[in-house]
Amino acid sequence: MDNNFLSPPTTIALTIVLVLLYNIWRIKKPSNKSKGMKPPEPSYALPLIGAYPALIISNQEAIKECFTTNDKILASRPKSSHGIYLGYNFAGFGFAPYGTYWSKLRKLTMFELLSSRRIESLRHVYESEIDTLIKDLFLYVKVGKVKVVISEWLERLTFNIITKMICGKRYFEYLQDVDDVEAHGQVLKSMKRIAKDLDTLVGSWVEEHVEKSKDGVNDSNEKHDFIDVMLSVIEDDPASGHNRDTIIKANVMVCI
């Protein structure tokens, strides 16, 4: 039997599930009065979820302490190798600790990439990609009877729209050889190699946008993608120790 199958899960989402299940179990339990007034059980537990300690609470006052009084202390994610190698040493807001830096970049992303105003201004992107998808499907089935896995085609469509909105590039033109991050169990080694390859790729996107900006190409705000927006807004951040290019590349990776 594969030893990895027996290893404890490391996902943080499991922590939330355990908290919910534990609290549901506590609610459904008979009261102490109906069980002969047994001593009260502890209101918290500290099990390990994989490599990370998890706090499971079942007391209303403790829950209030965690989600109101001490909510900022518990807001950050645990540090990981992904944040170091793929997140440019926690420069991407998806890996960054909770604070001013995280808040500023999250606000920028929400307003300049995910807002309804921004999505509407980039409408031409998803209209173009849907048109391309239909044409590609037609050419694919034109040769004869073929099996079409529609979920795979929709996945391609989704990622092409995302990367086009962020950097003006189509995902499946560039990132077809990065699916072996965990191949042969050499996760960290593969992660470093993939991080280096992606840094070169994303760095070339940023440099291309810088050159276009110097040449006055795409002056219209409607044609600006997210990299254009970040280049016009983001500056070096001495407080976090990250320069502008690193911040931009890291957040492109987070969004993709």
TrEMBL record:
<keyword id="KW-0472">Membrane</keyword>
<dbReference type="InterPro" id="IPR001128">
    <property type="entry name" value="Cyt_P450"/>
</dbReference>
<keyword id="KW-0408">Iron</keyword>
<keyword id="KW-0479">Metal-binding</keyword>
<keyword id="KW-0812">Transmembrane</keyword>
<dbReference type="GO" id="GO:0004497">
    <property type="term" value="F:monooxygenase activity"/>
</dbReference>
<dbReference type="GO" id="GO:0016020">
    <property type="term" value="C:membrane"/>
</dbReference>
<keyword id="KW-0560">Oxidoreductase</keyword>
<dbReference type="InterPro" id="IPR036396">
    <property type="entry name" value="Cyt_P450_sf"/>
</dbReference>
<dbReference type="GO" id="GO:0020037">
    <property type="term" value="F:heme binding"/>
</dbReference>
<dbReference type="Pfam" id="PF00067">
    <property type="entry name" value="p450"/>
</dbReference>
<dbReference type="GO" id="GO:0005506">
    <property type="term" value="F:iron ion binding"/>
</dbReference>
<dbReference type="GO" id="GO:0016705">
    <property type="term" value="F:oxidoreductase activity, acting on paired donors, with incorporation or reduction of molecular oxygen"/>
</dbReference>
<keyword id="KW-0349">Heme</keyword>
<protein>
    <submittedName>
        <fullName>Cytochrome P450 82C4-like</fullName>
    </submittedName>
</protein>
<feature type="transmembrane region" description="Helical">
    <location>
        <begin position="6"/>
        <end position="25"/>
    </location>
</feature>
<keyword id="KW-1133">Transmembrane helix</keyword>
<keyword id="KW-0503">Monooxygenase</keyword>
<dbReference type="InterPro" id="IPR050651">
    <property type="entry name" value="Plant_Cytochrome_P450_Monoox"/>
</dbReference>
